[in-house]
Amino acid sequence: MASATVHFSRPEPSLFTLTPSNDPQTLPPPVAGSTLSAPPFSIDPAWYNAVLDARVPITIALVYAVTVTTVNRYNRKAGNKPWPISKTKPFFAFVVAHNILLAVYSAWTFVVQHPSGPAGLAGTVDSLCKIHGVSGLDNAISYNASTSKWVAELPTQFKLTSAGTPDPTDLGRLWNEGLAFYGWIFYLSKFYEVLDTAIILAKGKRSSTLQTYHHAGAMMCMWSGMRYMSPPIWMFVFVNSGIHALMYTYYTLTAFNVPIPQALKRSLTTMQIIQFLVGASYAIIHSFVSYTVAIQVPSIPETVSSAVSVASSAVTSVAAVATSSGISNLVKKLLYRAVGEEGLAENVASPVPTAQHTPIASSNKASQIPQYTTEYRTIPCIDTSGQTFAIWLNVVYLTPLTFLFIRFFVKSYITRTIGQKKPRVNGVAAEKAAKDALKGVERQFNENGSVVNVDDVVNGNGKTNGHANGHAHAN
């Protein structure tokens, strides 16, 4: 078993490019029933990769953004009145079903996605960075961009398929354990989620910049993560599905006019903001993390010398057999020809060395003495330009999105709360000012001998206190 230490390192500059390599092709999930963690149904590999073509999310995102902008303008000209369909029972039923579907689906995705990392910190880093192969620090399989081949990071007994790709039945790492299937479905769900915007527009409301940017950007981020099999996309699927399970449950309750405490609303928005901050940080770290592994490998000099010794013995033995047999056959040929039997002379066969003449087996036994040396290999978390592209596309997307959510939080919960408190504060101030004014009037009347101060009545003596109202006392 290898041991490892985790450290930060500078990523290779060649990994940063705006046009990442198309290799390797995205690996489809295992066939249903092939393993214990296989998906509930199989997906045709051709269809699986077809929807991961870059033109699919780009086209849908552009059509979505243009449509929202156009309908926003239409609603504004129409006075932001609800569409007639939004007042029908089928529309209400659709909204409820839509929210319940996404709540249940998101919860399902959240539950089935989980990381595995048995060998301490290094094992956890290895299992989160290397999503192909079987579990164990020695058993990761990754794509080598220099050779354009899938290779084992360390010496391992687990092999690739005949096509030179990781075996879809390997268990213990994220891709085959569910990310390939559930991540792909989650990617498709980003197209379906635009119906959130359709519901808002049908109610005559305006789809905000936050809403439009959120949905269009999520399509591109999930596409890049799944297309290039970038390890951090696991976090996007896992955390985002958990947040969505809560969010769509909230939407379902509001559809039935269930009162939701303001604190819960604030908590949901806060969780989304935290999700963006944690997700972006988690993704960035992948570009700068690597781990050094100490492994035991067979000693090459001992192996080579043994092989040379065996080969030398075999060649010597064969040469000796060939030499002795050759002389005997030559004598036979000469004797047959001397008596005129040319046919028999031609039938004398050349010697063929047999296994018993070759002492390779005994030499092999002698060479099987185990000799090992310790080697240190540094393994970067990220292997391809595509994985790097997906990471930084997500970071670029999440940065303004986080700002928009914070601005929404401030406007919706802080500024609005302060605005709601102002009338009460002003009312108290006005009430106090009115009382002070009333007392001033009473004092003024009292000085003229017409009215007694209110405070005097409280005191029960009918006279002014001290000398403040001296004129009234004199009267």
Characterize the structure shown.
- The chain has helices at 45-50, 55-77, 89-112, 120-129, 175-192, 195-202, 209-227, 233-255, 262-286, 300-338, 342-346, 360-367, 385-447, 454-459, 470-474, and strands at residues 3-8, 141-144, 149-152, 289-298, 372-380.
- It is mostly helical and 475 residues long.
- The protein has three domains: 3-296 and 377-419, no CATH class; 309-370; 434-474, no CATH class.
- The strands form two sheets. It has a three-stranded antiparallel beta sheet. The protein has a two-stranded antiparallel sheet with strand order 2-3.
- Helix 7 (209-227) packs antiparallel against helix 13 (385-447) and helix 10 packs antiparallel against helix 12.
- Mean pLDDT is 78; it is low at 314-323, 352-363 and 437-475.
Helix content range of the residues, please?
Answer: 55-70%
Give the overall pLDDT as a whole number: 78
Number of helices: 15
Strand proportion, as a percent range, falls in 5-15%
Overall 3D form: elongated
Number of strands: 5
Q: Which runs of at least 5 residues are low in confidence (pLDDT < 50)?
A: 314-323, 352-363, 437-475
Give the C-alpha Rg.
40 Å
Q: Major sheet: order of its strands?
A: 1-4-5
Number of domains: 3
Overall structural class, as computed from helix and strand content, comes to mainly alpha
Calculate the terminal CA-CA distance, rounded to whole Å.
107 Å
Largest sheet: 3 strands, antiparallel
What's the helix-strand series? EHHHHEEHHHHHEHHHEHHH
